[in-house]
Amino acid sequence: MAGSPRPSTTFTCVQRRVPHVPGLMEGKVAVVTGAGGGIGREIAIMMAGAGARVIVADIGASLTGEGGSASPAAQTKALIEQRGGQAEVCTESVAAWGSARKIIQAALDHYGRIDAVVNNAGILRDGIFHKMSEDDWLSVISVHLNGSFFVSRAAAEHYRKQESGSFVHITSTSGLIGNVGQANYAAAKLGITALSKSIALDMQRYNVRSNCLAPWAWSRMTSSIPTTTAEQKAAVEKLQKMTPDKNAPLAVFLSSDAAKDVTGQVFGTRMHEIYLFSSPRPIRIVHRAEGWTPESIAEHCIPAMKQAFMPLDTSEQAFNWDPPE
């Protein structure tokens, strides 16, 4: 009855054992490269929280690839264990065939199997194309593109035998769309998407999946963005709100059995947005029965196609809206 005094009630608290609810990656073993910080660390932590046993692979090098330390990987391992998860450290490099194989072997040695690989390790050597050195080119290609191939190739042998497994390769809008001063990085990242599609095609008969994720996040990899103009400062301020953990849920999903029907795709994560990228396909065709000459191409073909040309834009220009917070 409205206005009636609330009856006095005595509550008895009964402790109940909360039943274990398996996570999406319960029983699986995952390797996450570049997991000593940033996006890789957040993916490793969330994977462990979802039930996976994780190999935290990181050589602890600088942003440009120099030096090495076990501390970053050890810190990630400690964070996982503090949350009740299981993890081991591997400080081998992804950039060489032999050492990359040792990363996968670490999963076998510690946990007896391998179910998921996240190719996240990377370095930056930014510079305008006409000033880029041979070493800056080769170093970035070696870590990003070669590293993704070497680690994936090592895992593929075991995936084939067990007829299961997943790959998540970290790509970038620098390669998918474009960016200034990142010819090496962009080439490697776009190459990774082709590698991923090839893996998906070649290994679908073994129930092996391969997908890409293009993340947006403020991390060590983006902290080198210049802030000399007001526009650059504003862009960095927006990027700083995009914390690395925003990218982990999709990586965990793609590595789990919940994504058993998802392969050969390129996804992106930006704050609370998830998007799917298109792949290059013919968008306009011009036919000439008598064939083409350079002159007729200039007169007929290019004018017919020009309205469909892709703009010469950067990833920042293509993503010209603020993501909702």
From TrEMBL:
Taxonomic superkingdom: Bacteria
Q: Where are its TM segments located?
A: none
Write the signal peptide boundaries.
none
Every Ketoreductase domain range: 28-224
Check the record and name the PROSITE patterns matching this protein.
ADH_SHORT
User: Which InterPro entries does the UniProt entry name for this protein?
Assistant: KR_dom, NAD(P)-bd_dom_sf, Peroxisomal_Beta-Oxidation, Sc_DH/Rdtase_CS, SDR_fam
One matching Pfam family? adh_short
What family is this? Belongs to the short-chain dehydrogenases/reductases (SDR) family.
- What is this protein called in UniProt? 3-hydroxyacyl-CoA dehydrogenase
Give the organism the record lists. Rhodopila globiformis (Rhodopseudomonas globiformis)
